[in-house]
Design a protein that fits this description.
With 76 residues, this protein is mostly beta strands. The strands form two sheets. The chain has a four-stranded antiparallel β-sheet with strand order 1-4-5-6, with no helix packed on it. Strands 2-3 form a two-stranded antiparallel ribbon. The protein has one domain. The longest helix has 6 residues. It is 8% helix and 57% strand. The protein binds zinc ion. The site of zinc ion has 8 residues, from loops.
Length: 76
């Protein structure tokens, strides 16, 4: 029997702010995005379990941003 194991993703879940944030990188104001990025271990191309989760907060225009904690992601 052959197992095909790989790493899939990242799959992501996004939330958009309902207030504008000034971006120091591109100097625009926009509704920044909070994103949960999941990487899953896959077996026969099906996600089995998540191996890594990142939370990021970034500007939708230039994608400048930073990592945030899970608590910050879920607070909004
Ligand atoms: Zn920007």
């Amino acid at each position: 029997m052959i197992f095909i194991v790989g790493v899939g993703g990242p799959r992501s879940e996004q939330k958009r702010d309902n207030f504008k944030t000034f971006c120091p990188h591109c100097r625009n104001e926009d509704y920044w995005i909070r994103e949960k990025q999941l990487q899953n271990l896959t077996l026969f191309f099906l996600p089995v379990f998540p191996i890594k989760t990142d939370y990021v907060y970034y500007c939708p225009i230039c994608h400048y941003g930073n990592k945030i904690s899970k608590e910050d992601f879920e607070r909004f």
